[in-house]
Amino acid sequence: MSRYSYRKNGFDFGDFEITKREILASISIIAVMLLLGVLISSKISEYQLDANEIYNKAVKIDNTDLFQYGMDTNVGNAFVYGDLIAVDTVTYPEIGGEYMYIEKVKEKYTKHTRIVTYKDSNGKTHTRKETYWTWDRVSSEDKRCDKISFCGITFDSNKIDLPNTDYIDTIKESSHFRYKYYGVGTNYTGTIFTDLRDQTILDNTQFYINKNIEETVKKLESGGRVVLFWIFWIVLICGCVFGFYYLDNKWLE
């Protein structure tokens, strides 16, 4: 059975109705929003084109000598391909191993309650209190190596954003407490895009794991920002139009 009905002056959806005047007004809203979207997306495209020009002009480096020379001579923007290695390593005694970074998360097995709604065999609605248990994070601590080597040159570890952590192990302290460990390994290969000057690189330089220079350039030059913007903008337009319909727009009468 249809959830809405047609009327002479619009559509009735039960909770709210849409009049013909509201439909005409919403067309104007959509037109204005689309115009704004075109203007914003054009700015995003211009920014991407400017960034692409920077990427294309950047120096491409894949050996230690050129890397050091680029920093010594303030060569500027550069893509550098090489191995990212932990010079010193960290760990927790209870799990052993060696890592660039390691996190220890304490979790507690916690009791929760919630109200559940259900229907019986006769279709009558009832509610009941339900109990359930989950492992909840209560605290954490971590360790990070002091020095890393990239493309044969040693830096402080904060110079490059380390790869994402992987799960290592879980150790139970008791029936209600446990520790989960996550870490970053000691050796990776990939590419960075950074500014070479003053005999160093930028702090928190992004590391593109398992990508060579060409793959990194292609990733950075992709037009994904425009696509993501339009997905967001269309959802926003739909939300605005729905909100407009839901309001009591007596001023249109």
Structure, described:
The chain has 253 residues and is an alpha+beta fold. The protein folds into two domains: 5-51 and 228-247; 78-211, no CATH class. Helix content is 31%, strand content 39%. It has four helices and 13 strands. The protein has helices spanning 20-57, 64-72, 213-221, 224-246; strands spanning 5-7, 10-12, 17-19, 59-61, 76-86, 101-119, 125-144, 147-150, 153-156, 166-172, 177-184, 187-196, 207-209. Strands 4, 5, 8, 9, 12 and 13 form a six-stranded mixed beta sheet that branches. It has a four-stranded antiparallel beta sheet with strand order 7-6-11-10, with no helix packed on it. Strands 1-2-3 form a three-stranded antiparallel beta sheet. β8 and β9 (153-156) form a beta hairpin. α1 (20-57) runs antiparallel to α4. The chain is flat.
